[in-house]
Each structure stands twice: as structure tokens, then as C-alpha cells.
């Protein structure tokens, strides 16, 4: 057992304690006041760090070694979701309707305790390390754009991040070079017809019938407007209209999602959603307003950094720990970091059915396997320690 692995195991109970505190005090995007205060106080207790608040609910700690080398940044997101927790845990969320159901409490605890370990190894490091505890990943346009605007990446050479996932067993490292995540877009379609009595439809322009035809026609965006090899998902997820069983309403509102991995596909989907919606509505005598809102871009993993990280994981945890991924559908605002400098982001397995840790993300019974925290700490410290060696 090497020295780093031993220290990780010794520190794991403290990491679990931090994670449970954060889980219990879950806070929504842009409301992470207690969370950021807790993290700031813990970082101050480590000593030797320059600590700042790039935004009111985010925290950054900087470790300066005083020796020449790379400037590296690593980010952990800290916000929770508007979900009522259904887990029966002594540390379940104390806030009604708010829950860490995506592992962000684990991300923050991993990074906080990695800072503790790296501070112990300060004399072995070169360059500068920036630890970013970022707010509001769950709510586009997201917190990344705000902290970047505040200057957290100025002078940074490389940026890193990870996400705990219930799609991989605990201790597996999901690696994908190039495009990792989808672009996450939203569309809103407001249909205006002419309401009236359900017994006299000839006097009306029915927005529900119009909306139904639009919903079905939008499925041809994927099957007839894109190449068979193009990867994309289009879903209409909300359809709202009406007030009574015998009233044809005057309008209908549709909301949907588009996930894609290529700018050409993204632009085609946006154009065809508008054209189809407007064409169907015109044919029915209705009018329509389409708003297409671009969400997060795709995360792009630098190929050279990906190859290097793949080797680091194999050396540290064994060849079997490396799990090669295809691009995944969830989105993340880490995408904006890797548009500033080369970046690498991975998926760290935290699923263990024997512990009940296999519910999907954004689920009221999501529960991460806390053994994954040790893997995250050791990976983070090994990664930054090797990248902070003297540069040639």
C-alpha cells in the first residue's frame, strides 16, 4: 500500500463527514450560502491557501508553491436539486423539497479533502493549483459562466473535473476523448387558436389538435432531417392546455428538449422545429411562437490530456479501472471551462446495488456509494501531483 493510498483511507471518515453535512444542508442553484460558508471555513482551517469568493455562493482556494510550473484548476459543483428526498438516512436533507440527487455533495467533499492532502504535499509540488467550488451547475446558464467571468481561469494552463455516476460500478473510471456530453437545449412552443364550446368545434381553431399534430410531426426531425448516423434526442416533455372537459381552449403550450453532439445537428434541429411548428399551425389556422433556448454546449476532452489521464488511472488503480465511454447524453456547464483552456472531465463510478446505491440521478432515492469518495480523492491528488511536477 503506497503512502498516498494510506493517507486517503485515513482521511476517508472526514470526507464522509463533510459529504454528509453537505447532503443534509442541500441548497438550490444560486442559493448555496450555507454550503459555500461551510467550505470556506473548512478551507481556512487548512492554512496556506488564498481563499476568495468569485461570486456570492462560490468559493475558490489557491495553493501557490512558489516554484515555477503549470497553473492548474479543478472544479467541483456544489448545488442541489428541487426534489423531495425519499431516502431514510440520518443525514437526509433537512430542507423540504431540496436534495443532493446528483452527487454534487460528493464532488465538493472529494475536492475539499483532496485540498487537505495536497496541502500536506506542498513541498513536492510546483506551479499553482486553483480549487473551484462552483455554484449553480444545475440551472442554465449556470454558474460556470459567472466564475469564469470573475477571472478564475486567468492564466490557467489546464482544467479538470469529475462527476460521480450511478451508471458505473464504484471505482470504475469512465473515460472518453473528444466530445463527452451532449449539448442541452430547450424549446417552448406557444400555440394560439380560437376557443369555444366543445359542441361547436367548427367555430373554433383547436390548439390541442394543432399541438398534437406538431408533437407527432416533430419526430420527423430525427428521422427525416438528419443523417441516419447523427446522434440526437428530441423529446416533448410538457403539454399544457385547457380548463374544463367541455371547453376548447384558446391556446396550448409545449416544452421540449433537444440533446445533440454536433453543431450542424444542433442548428438543423432548431431550424426544423421552427419550420414544422409554423407550417402545421398555419395549416390548422392557428398561430405559433417558437422560442429555442440554447443550453450548455458539449464538454470536449482534450485528446492529449485524455490519453495522459487514461495512463494515470491505469498506473494508480489498474488497467481494469479504465472504462472506455461513448459520448453520454447528460449535459454539464464544465463545457465552458474547456473552451478557455485544455480540459479533461471523467465519470467516476459510485453505484453499488448491495448498498442501495444504484438509483438514477435526479431521483428521490438517489444514494451514492461513499466508497467512491476514496477513489475520487486518490485520483484527484495523483492527477494534480503528477501535473505539478517541474516542467521541462
Give me the secondary-structure topology.
Blueprint (H helix, E strand, L loop, with lengths): L2 H22 L8 H14 L3 E3 L6 E6 L6 E7 L26 H17 L7 E7 L9 H6 L8 E12 L3 E3 L2 E2 L3 E10 L3 E2 L9 H12 L1 H5 L7 E9 L6 E2 L2 E10 L2 H22 L2 E7 L6 E2 L1 H15 L4 E3 L18 E9 L20 H16 L5
Parallel strand pairs: 3-4, 3-5, 5-16, 6-15
Antiparallel strand pairs: 1-2, 2-4, 6-16, 7-14, 8-12, 8-13, 9-11, 10-12
Helix pairs in contact: 1-3, 1-9, 2-3, 3-9, 5-7
Q: List the secondary-structure elements in sequence, H or E.
A: HHEEEHEHEEEEEHHEEEHEEHEEH
Strand order of the largest sheet: 1-2-4-3-5-16-6-15
Structure summary, number of beta strands? 16
Sheet/helix structural class: alpha/beta
User: Main β-sheet, in a few words?
Assistant: 8 strands, mixed
The oligomeric state of the chains shown is single chain
CATH architectural grouping of the largest domain: 3-Layer(aba) Sandwich
Q: CATH-wise, what's the superfamily of the largest domain?
A: Zn peptidases
